[in-house]
Amino acid sequence: MARNRLIMAPGPTNIPDEYMEELALEFPHHRTQEFAVLLANLENNLKKIIKLANGEVVIFTSSGSGAMESTVANFFVTGDTVLVIDIGFFGQRYKAMCETFGLHVIHLPYPPGETYQLEDVRAALAAHPEIKAVYVTHHETSTGVLNDLQALGELIKPLDDTLLITDSISGLVIHPFDMDAWGIDAVAGGSQKGFLVPPGLSFVGLSQKALGKIARATTPRFYWDYRQMIELAKKGQTPSTPAINLMKAMLRSSNDLLAQGLESVWQHHYQLRQYLESKMLAMGYTLGVTDEAIRGNVIVPINLQPGMDSLAICRELESEHGIITIYGLGEKMHSMLRIGVIGPLNATDIDQFSDALAKVTKKLYNY
Ligand SMILES: Cc1ncc(COP(=O)(O)O)c(C=O)c1O
């Protein structure tokens, strides 16, 4: 792959040439049979990737936040109570969305770098049997923590009136995900992370339990309305003009992922993450997530040395070395680097990154 920049960020990633090429080729008109086949094939691939045998997938032309918002807009009566597990920036986004839609939010926040405690969720559900949904971020991209969804599913599956809803925008493809076995009712995904295609497509997987709640919803919705999407998808159509060329690219990438085998994709990212961690530790940095058991494989968050500024380091890496990496989010904006390990990357890229970081910190801080 010819590339001008090395992107080591939590998405968008470097994009393989063949997916970029799909964007430039002729694409079917969205009111044709050829499009209906494209839509059905993409839906089927996404179902295989999220492991959803008996449910629906809806595909939106939007960034991932649109898919998240759709999971707030389609199930509730204004004033319904929901529980939001918040382990960072994207958990707070779900809280803000739920509040925007007039839901009563019970907020369960945890410090950056930590995961949720199952006992807290159990206690909240026992104290508030009126909770209609539990929201949780699968992989929290602001901290690098991967939440255990399976344990939450076991807790929530028996509750007929409570949905388990997850944002797995940066979780999917990179980590195991089993919608049916884990009892996930709605999952939001996006095109620009594990799928290695440009931003602009998002999707939601819906269980039968979630589909059964749509009719009761009274919150306003139009673009995000699942009813129209599902009805029209049965006829191979979408309510509005979708990003057809992105759909073609995502079909190709999802075909490749399934052919490669998801297990080998997870393994690859796990190994890259561990390799980068070992390099950063050897350079004297500490890791943002201390507990190995809850580390995801999208980023390696590192704490910089006192006096270093991550924004200055990112600028220098970009301008002098053609490397894009990302600073912290929230209170760790200046003191953390979030180095991505997703995309078509290998150990040589990690060596290149580490060498460049060493040069930059030598130049800026004599470190
Ligand atoms: C965990 C998570 N949730 C939500 C989003 C928002 O997605 P988008 O920027 O595509 O709207 C992101 C993007 O970085 C993310 O990593």
Quick tags:
367 residues; alpha/beta; Aspartate Aminotransferase, domain 2; 2 domains; 4-stranded antiparallel beta sheet; 15 strands; 41% helix; binds pyridoxal-5'-phosphate
Task: Describe, in plain words, how this protein is organized in 3D.
- It is a single chain.
- The protein is of the alpha/beta class.
- 41% of the residues lie in helices and 18% in strands.
- Strands 2-10-9-8-5-3-4 form a 7-stranded mixed beta sheet, with helices on both faces. A 4-stranded antiparallel beta sheet has the order 11-12-15-14. It has a two-stranded parallel sheet with strand order 1-13.
- Helix 4 (89-100) links the parallel strand 3 (81-86) and strand 4.
- The longest helix has 21 residues, at 262-282.
- The two termini are 33 Å apart.
- Pyridoxal-5'-phosphate binds next to helix 3.
What is this structure's SSE topology?
Elements: E1 6-7, H1 17-24, H2 33-50, E2 55-61, H3 64-73, E3 81-86, H4 89-100, E4 104-109, H5 118-127, E5 131-137, E6 139-140, E7 145-146, H6 149-156, E8 163-167, H7 179-182, E9 186-190, E10 201-207, H8 208-211, H9 226-234, H10 244-260, H11 262-282, E11 286-287, E12 299-303, H12 310-321, E13 323-324, E14 326-327, E15 336-340, H13 347-365
Parallel strand pairs: 1-13, 3-4, 3-5, 5-8, 8-9
Antiparallel strand pairs: 2-10, 6-7, 9-10, 11-12, 12-15, 14-15
Helix pairs in contact: 1-10, 2-10, 10-11, 11-13, 12-13
